[in-house]
Amino acid sequence: MKKNEEILKKKRKGSGKPEHELDMSLLTPEQQEFLKREEKIDRINERMNRPVIGITYICAFLFVGLISYILHFMIVEKDQVISNAANTRLDRYAANVIRGDIMTSDGKKIATNRNGSRYYPYGKLFAHVAGYSDYSKAGIELVGNYYLLESHANPFERMVHTLREEKNMGDTVISTLNYELQEAAYDAMSGADGAVVAMEPDTGKILAMVSKPDFDPNDIDEVWKEANTNPDSSMLLNRASQGLYPPGSTFKLLTTLSFMRQKPFGFMTYSYDCEKKEEIFNGVSVHCYGRKTHGEEDLSLALANSCNQAYADIGTKLNVRKWRETMEEFLFNKSLPYTDASAVSRFLLDAKSDKGYIPQTAFGQGDTLISPLHNAMITATIANGGLMMKPYLIDSVENYKGSRIRKFSPSSYDTLMTSKEVEILTSYMRRVVTEGTAAPYFSGAEYEAAGKTGTAEYENGAHDYSWFVGFASLEQPEIVVSVIVEQSDVNGVKASAVARRIFDTYYSLEGH
Question: Cis before residue 372, ω within 30 degrees of 0?
Fold first, then answer.
């Protein structure tokens, strides 16, 4: 037995010779049989060890995945989960903390407490964007819920309050909103229903957000009762982020981009003669707004004149599958990267769709729907050189005495356009403002703006939506505006006029 062990040792570890040089002829039959048995055992052990090793690797992989998810949750998702209104943990915070204030970036207090209740000093002005905190939560009251119920007061002060069974003062949320821009947008709507979004293209900061019809959050008891007893009430809906509208001619920007990508040489020589008041495309009758005719147009002039017939013609030249892919790159049929409630814009056209839907889709009618916030994000992408930024509402968090606790930084979504595409689209949008459909509204402006108007018919053509999307200035875009006005044909409010007032207000602010 001892001799067999010595032989096995030589076989496995070597004795100055490589393993394969062990001379089997020098071994007795018993020793050879012994080695064969050992080799068989080794092979069996090797086969048995394989699944054990595999399971070990799987366990290690799962462990690394678990750690990665925990880190992702702590860094990316924690605040969203904690601030969810359904999170009962926050109710325990509210038992010990007085809800903090919400401020604009220019120092206006837009949500605070008075006589033990939540109070909104400016009433309807910030109704949807600041939100409310009773019954349910919305707006910044929801997005910043966790921070408003945290307290970073002096530790000694917190200890004294705890001993006295008194509540500590919650932290203050500093929003990205600008009071003067919010007021200008609100007033410019002149009582019309619709929505306004103003944002910085290079950061995603939302500077103003208005939705009408509105409500007074100080009367939330009556508002909530009305909203829950009247099925036609939509006053609590934030039309800026949750409203869906046909984009009208603002969609021509994306149709233009799709045409440029699919016809990289043909788009430069494109021309269309808009000589008839009505034309047939894919069996569908198309006319321009007011049944105007525009004559001979290249692509730039077709956009400036907002020529429906030219864009219906362009639509028939597009590969629908590639067209849809471009739209989904720009977040149609997808959730927006936005922390507050938002609707999913839709682009339903695909390769199986009836070709009769193509002409109308090309100029923003048909089944395509978009939110004002989404339209602002697309316009901001052009203004920002092709990089889409994620929109956000909270700039920083301070304790109630003004010491900063946290600062939020801009975050990008993706680069969606090339610099050449941006350059061409910007020049086309500039022409809309200087000699096209928006020119009457921007005459005499001391800044250079670029944009696109839109008119979308609804209720079988009985009423019009008025759209404007655009940015200023041209060389260094600083502000993007997206405006939708409902029943513009009745109330006389035009989106371009609303946008002009917001731009004028922005460039009148200190530092501009």
Answer: no
Which two structure tokens, joined as six digits, stand for 386? 């092709």
Distance CA 180, CA 125 (A): 11
pLDDT of residue 17: 47
Instruction: Indicate the pTM of the whole model.
Output: 0.85
- Sign of CA pseudo-dihedral 150, 392, 228, 81: negative
Q: Are 503 and 472 contacting, i.e. CB atoms less than 8 angstroms apart? A: yes
What are the two backbone dihedrals, phi and then psi, of residue 174, each rounded to the nearest 5 degrees? -95, 115
Residues (pLDDT < 70) of the chain are 1-27, 72-91, 512
Q: What's the pLDDT at 76? A: 61
Determine the angle formed by the axes of helices 29-72 and 2-13, rounding to 10 degrees. 50
Report d(CA 163, CA 159) in Å as an integer.
6
Whether 496 and 465 have beta carbons less than 8 Å apart is answered as: no
Q: Alpha carbon of 379 to those of 307, 354, 417, 475: distances in Å?
A: 20, 29, 12, 15
Q: Is the dihedral of CA 91, 97, 98, 104 positive or negative?
A: negative
On whether the CB atoms of residues 79 and 173 are closer than 8 A, the answer is: no
Q: Report the DSSP pairing between strands 479-485 and 194-199.
A: antiparallel
Q: Does a cis peptide bond (omega within 30 degrees of 0) precede residue 473?
A: yes
pLDDT score, position 56: 81
Task: List, for residues 268-310, the tens digit of each pLDDT value.
Answer: 999 999 999 999 999 999 999 889 999 999 999 999 999 999 9
Cα 424 from chain centroid (whole Å): 24
Computed over its alpha carbons, how large is the radius of gyration of the chain?
Answer: 32
Amino acid at 67: I
Summarize pLDDT for 143-191 with one digit per residue, the tens: 999 999 999 888 878 788 778 878 899 999 999 999 999 999 999 998 8
To which residue do tokens 């629908």 refer? 320
- Rounded Cα distance between 292 and 275, Å, is 9
Q: 303-362, pLDDT tens digit by residue?
A: 999 999 999 999 999 999 999 999 999 999 999 999 999 999 999 999 999 999 999 999
Q: What is the pLDDT of residue 30?
A: 75
Return the structure tokens found at 480: 């993007």
Return the DSSP state at 20.
G
Q: Could you give the 3-state DSSP secondary structure of residue 53? A: helix
Pairing mode of beta strands 102-103, 172-175: parallel
Three-class SS of 347-390: CCCCCCCCCCHHHHHHCCCCCCEECHHHHHHHHHHHHCCCEEEC
Which residue type, as a one-letter code, is found at position 408?
F
Answer yes or no: are the C-beta atoms of 438 and 451 closer than 8 Å: yes
| Domains detected in the chain | 225-393+413-508 (3.40.710.10)
Between helix 419-434 and helix 372-383 the angle, nearest 10°, is: 110
Q: Which two tokens stand for residue 56?
A: 């070990």
